[in-house]
Amino acid sequence: MRPFDDTPLSRDGKVLILAYDHGLEHGPVDFEDVPETMDPETVWDVATHDAVTGFAVQKGVAEAYADQYDDVNLLLKLNGTSNLWMGEPDSAVNCSVDYAAELGASSVGFTLYGGSNNEIEMAEEFRKAQETAREHDLPVVMWSYPRGQGLKNDTSPGTIAYAARQALELGADVAKVKYPGSKDAMEHAVAAAGPTKVVMSGGSKTSDEDFLTTVSDAIDAGAVGLAVGRNVFQRENPREMLDALEAVIFEEASVDEALDYL
Asked: pTM for the complete prediction?
């Protein structure tokens, strides 16, 4: 496990990843609420906010824009698959760690679908990525998403704790997991992850208060932050939402105090 707090991904030991890999994973439908977000430059501009410690994009978006945004910490997603794929959960490796480093990435991300029939192949691909990332001194964030035919409930507390533990066992520095429904369940997931840091996945867009309450509960439970996309860029006021998240995550403000930014 590499030291975490001395990396660009960390600010005072906390993390706020702005994810914009949705164009591949979900398609243009995720940009319909705020059509200007179809243009990657719009969201790159949002990622310049001081609260953002990592901006997660796929290779093509990084190639097109990274050199124009030296003040954005690039988190290069190494794998990803379109929503057009209808088979058992899998994720194609689209970029090497070496190329991510060449593009200026300060961290890398990798999706693992634990429980999928393709888990063994993905875990072997992660092993190669993780060991190469160590050579470049890049933190590794695992999108640890249990999913597949054998899983009846991919958001149960036990499953989310297993996802957090799987990230530790395979060598991830940060585990991105779904919120398991309660503060106690999140505490269990954080404990299962041991020294691997846990961040909550932002998920689908919800109301301002509901979203900030869940983030606050996750932080209180020991998560070090958040990896969020739609709950920021699908809003008309993304920078104000980042102001509110900055208050909750980095300043330990209450939800009521954070809502004043919106």
From this structure: 0.97
